[in-house]
UniProtKB/TrEMBL annotation:
Protein name: Lytic transglycosylase
Keyword set, alphabetical order: Signal
Provenance organism: Nitratireductor aestuarii
GO molecular function terms listed in the Swiss-Prot or TrEMBL record: peptidoglycan lytic transglycosylase activity
Gene3D superfamilies: 1.10.530.10, Bacterial muramidase
CDD domains: Slt35-like
Domain Transglycosylase SLT as annotated: residue spans: 36-239
InterPro entries xref list: Lysozyme-like_dom_sf, MltB-like, SLT_2
Length: 273
């Protein structure tokens, strides 16, 4: 074997050992609280190596295993209801009634959003009402603990690991605080964005120079419109089941009854278009 061949062999052995060591030290998921602290230590080391800042690492260190989050993740029974049962349980008639009032009160905001993103008021208001009762209840779980717990949990570890890294970036950027609270799965703000979606689709809807999904209705609604547009929303096309823009609503939530409910409530809020 010539010297070049030996060098390549040594390099391959070295790289193999590095990757093997990395795999061995990777954070290991679990199905109960017993391994959470050990997982946090390992994950923190990985996060630091990926450039996560000290502020975010401190926030991660302060997390606790979120038992309510696990219970919520295992018990999403409402998505198994029929469409009529689901809409009744979620108060669709109230959402439509109050939604029409919000549409009239915020007409200029919704007009501006539709001009920019092509998304009409109806589905945005339906999502806003369905998710948080028009911003009245945003959740009561610590966001970082919720996302960290789901990243550790083996059921959907890979999916929520991405969102945990996003949440840590949001803390480093000052968009999210370590004390932030939200929904059980770590959703943030008035329309309940997961952290990764805040990074990808969050926009400054009120022009104050920052993205605030919690306190700014304009930011939350414009970001929701931006999300739908990025998922294929076509200005002027219909959004009922079977129409072009229904696919964008499917991108928002994977449950069929949820998608159907948003489309129907949006239609009733918008009226004839």
């Amino acid at each position: 074997m010539n010297l070049g061949g030996k060098a390549r062999l040594f390099a391959a052995i070295f790289l193999s050992s590095v990757f093997t060591a990395g795999a061995a030290s990777a954070a290991t998921c679990g199905n109960d609280a017993s391994g959470f602290e050990r997982w946090k230590t390992s994950f923190s080391q990985e996060a630091a190596a990926r450039g996560v800042g000290q502020r975010a690492l401190n926030a991660l260190a302060g997390t606790t295993y979120a038992r309510k989050t696990i219970a919520a993740d295992r018990g999403q029974k409402s998505f198994k209801l029929s469409l009529n049962e689901f809409m009744q349980k979620r108060g669709s008639a109230t959402i439509v009634s109050q939604g029409k009032k919000h549409k009239a009160q915020k007409a200029s905001l919704f007009a501006a959003i539709e001009r920019q993103y092509g998304v009409p008021a109806g589905p945005l208001i339906a999502i806003w009402g369905m998710e948080t009762g028009f911003g009245r209840f945003l959740g009561d779980q610590n966001t970082i603990s919720a996302v960290a717990t789901l990243a550790y949990d083996c059921r959907r570890s890979e999916f929520f690991t991405d969102h945990l890294y996003a949440a840590l970036q949001l803390i480093d950027r000052g968009i999210l605080t370590p004390q932030a609270v939200g929904a059980a799965h770590g959703e943030i703000g008035q329309t309940q964005f997961l952290p990764g979606s805040v990074l990808k689709y969050g926009v400054d809807g009120d022009g104050d120079g920052r993205i605030d999904m919690v306190r700014s209705t304009a930011d939350a609604l414009a970001s929701t419109a931006n999300f739908l547009r990025a998922h294929g929303w076509r200005p002027g096309a219909g959004y009922q089941e079977g129409e072009p823009n229904f696919a964008a609503i499917q991108g928002w939530n994977a449950a069929t009854v949820y998608q159907q409910a948003i489309a129907l409530m949006g239609r009733d809020i918008d009226g004839a278009r």
